[in-house]
Design goal:
Distance between the termini: 22 Å
CATH architecture: 4-Layer Sandwich
CATH superfamily: Aminohydrolase, N-terminal nucleophile (Ntn) domain
Radius of gyration: 17 Å
Largest sheet: 7 strands, antiparallel
Helix content: 10-25%
Strand content: 25-35%
Structural class: alpha+beta
Number of helices: 6
Oligomer: single chain
Number of strands: 14
Length: about 260
């Protein structure tokens, strides 16, 4: 399980998003309020963005976020108009290392998953692998269900370049239900294609992990945000309804779609 946050708006320094809010991901690392299956997010952290060349960039560290001596320097040196970040609480069977630390990126997309799939290594992974084209398997460097989900999503998008991301997410949720069978799956995800942010709040056999959004927080003028727990105390954060997809577009108000 993790805590996720994402930002879309005017260009800001990383520290304004990741470190300075009253309930930032830095704080959520050691004092989360709504984490159900753990007490801390001390098993690594990461953040991703798009560089000046438009290509995804990522920084991950399997140590607790509050222990990284580089973060303050990176915080005021890096700026972007889109950020995706998370702090991690590792699930059993998924080691704490660089390969298992999110966000994950490829040549186009940023991806982060807060959740788990019960019995993934015993029952579910082989079902997923049977449906994932072999060309995507070498890019999976770790062993988490999250990275396999990212591979499955990329395959859906690459097989049909005209397929909207939100439609691909809906298709992925349907496939996951087939893969997991009667196993519990917690499936909150945030994805970006460099222009928009997409989030899905979903689960099979349990309550969905928390997820909130806002387009009205004065701490972040002219911006839209997503977070597992509100980053501020402003009262303008809204809960993403369960089993829905959220789309944030810089030119449009937030949009919600039912799965």
């Amino acid at each position: 399980m993790c805590r996720i946050a994402a930002y879309l708006g005017e260009t800001i320094a990383l520290e304004k998003f990741l470190l300075e809010p009253p309930h930032s991901l830095l704080v959520q690392g050691w004092a989360p309020r709504e984490l159900r299956y753990a007490r801390l997010n001390a098993d690594g952290f990461g953040f991703s963005w798009y560089g000046e060349d438009g290509r995804p960039a990522v920084y991950v560290n399997p140590a607790p976020i509050w222990t990284d001596p580089n973060l303050r320097h990176l915080g005021h040196s890096l700026s972007s108009d889109l950020w995706l970040a998370s702090v991690r609480s590792a699930s059993p069977g998924n080691p704490v290392n660089h390969a298992n630390t999110q966000p994950f990126v490829d040549g186009e997309f940023l991806f982060d998953h807060n959740g788990l799939i019960d019995d993934f290594h015993i029952k579910v992974r082989q079902r997923m692998v049977a449906d994932i084209d072999a060309a995507y398997l070498p890019s999976i460097l770790g062993n988490t269900e999250s990275e396999y989900l990212f591979a499955a999503l990329r395959q859906l998008l690459n097989e049909n370049p005209d397929l909207p991301v939100e439609s691909a997410l809906g298709e992925l949720m349907q496939r996951i239900e087939d893969w997991v069978g009667d196993c519990r799956a917690l499936l909150t995800m945030v994805i970006s294609d460099g222009e928009r942010l997409y989030a899905v709040r979903h689960a099979c056999g349990d309550e969905c992990p928390t997820l909130y959004y806002t387009a009205d927080d004065e701490t972040f003028p002219n911006a839209q945000l997503i977070a597992s727990e509100p980053l501020t105390e402003s009262g303008v954060w809204q809960s993403v309804p369960e089993h829905q997809i959220l789309i944030l577009d810089p030119e449009e108000p937030p949009e919600l779609l039912s799965l």
